[in-house]
Fold this protein.
Amino acid sequence: MSGRTEQVAAVAAPTQDAAHDKTRDGTGGGAEELLAVQDLHQHFAARSGVWSRLGRGAPSVTKAVDGVTLAVRRGETVGLVGESGCGKSTLSRCAAGLYTPTSGSVRYAGQTLHGAPTRQQRRLVQMVFQDPYSSLNPRMTVGQTLGEVLRYHQVVPRGAVPARVRELVDLVGLPPRAVDQLPRSFSGGQRQRIGIARALALEPKVLIADEPVSALDVSVQANIINLLLDLKQTLGLSMLFVSHNMAVVRQISDRVAVMHDGVVVEEGATAEVFARPRDAYTRLLLSSVPRLSTQRIPAVDAELR
Amino acid sequence: MTASPTGLTGPAGARAASGPGSPGAPLLELHDVDVEIPLPGGTLHAVRGVSLTASAGQSVGLVGESGSGKSLTLRAAMDLLPVPARITGGSIVVGGVDVTGMAPARRREHLSSRMAMIFQDALTALNPTMRVGDQVAEVPRLRLGMSRSAARARAVDLLAQVGIRDPENRYRAFPHELSGGMRQRICIAIALSAEPGLILADEPTTALDVTIQAQVLGVLAGLRREKGVGMVLVTHDLAVVSGTCEELNVMYAGRIVEHGRTEVLLDAPRHPYTAALLRSVPDPDQPVHRLLTIPGQPPDLMQATTPCPFAPRCPAQVERCLTEVPPLASVGHGHHSACWRADEPQEWPGAIGEVAVEGLRA
């Protein structure tokens, strides 16, 4: 256990300084890095059946993440964008310690992960999942879901758990009666708030959000984005925000990394990447985003009438 | 697929006089259509008096959030309502003929020869055990009575039309061998195979990546331009309809609350819900301090709603909104709004969102 306590001390030590570091310049400045992946590879081998083993040729390997280096520094939100299959979700799951990478390393506040993160390391980085319908236990009330996390990680003394649950529910903007309700009585946006509360229960420094608003309606999506922006400010959270939605990433990120075929093709300050994309794929991605403009309509009309 | 003739009302055949195929005549007209879903706990009144018209070469958008009844409206038009749901009022006129009183088999025949539908999930819409080409050739062969080889040639031609490269070889592919965008193109080819005048598209690009979405929308726009195919596009994505449709219908709680030409409606919305919805869409080109949101939640459609269903969430609410149903009335130039204060948008309290800006950020 002593090894673990040392780790915690190392994790906790540098948190005091650089609290107000702004990383809007895109270089990250001198801010301390909280979550980093270094030359990360995650390959999946296709399940090899009898026939493929009898045949010649190497087993097929999917290189979901193929050499990515990325860091999230204190107080900054890094947007990870790309299309389906580009490896962004695999990368975020590696970063959350849900997969053990094929090669390369994941560091939490300077500490390299060896295999699964320890209980203490898990408290540092937490994840919010895409689907608020399947990521909650349908038979546990919100209070039970949050209470379980708090008790398992011994975040607060047992007696203080109910009070902390109420605080968390309030923090994410749910009514107090939500504590005793089951997930089925909530709408999609409210469920996503529960998911966020569960992640925040451990008071993490970094939140990994994998497509947290993709399953939601626009007006609800705006609510959740605003909530994340508020939490970032009030709690000083750092975030790895994974999304395929360029418009959402634009709103929430300080820096953006664009992923394509398992590698990061472009990385930089959000405004810079959106204004002057250097990579051809980034340009294609940006030009494909549908925009709320009426300018294209007259052109179509002219040809029609 | 169950035809649901129960409880159909309306003047059957009354509009048949105009005759099908007359130029400029609307291909699809919905008049005051109601859809109800009987559920164990009561009846969910999902679509409430929706009227809609679509003509050849015209693209009409139907936008709204989940639960607003937009998909059910489309499915009611195509007679594809999911099982317990049924049409309880209004009439549906297709190609000048009122189909509401027709025998189910005839109605299906009538509808499917004039309209075709594309669904959100192309993988489940396709038959996984059949080669995609054969699926495209099915309608020409069985419905249009073409020979095997003629139907095959037609299918290859259709595949080429929806932008599939090397259609001869792709003909033999199975759905699982194709990407999402390709599958959706196959669905579009199938929809086109019966030579419909109108395509009903239910969230056709929602499951696709942005680059693929742009391609599929391009294919649909091309068909409209070159072949004069009309389109009704149902989506929750305002940005998608703004670039695709000339006319928009905004739905809220089962009703159309605003209708008008796209550029007018986006530029100067005359219903507070549209205004709020537009401002909650994040702009990829311009980060804002804070996104604007709509407080509260849409009403439960199993209960009676307030006369104006948006009133409880509306910043411009006045007493009349709680006592009288606002009709979908003209506010000029083919622009309609179901709001008592549609004529004074400048008077609406500065909004919905500015309140939020003051909120937590302050």
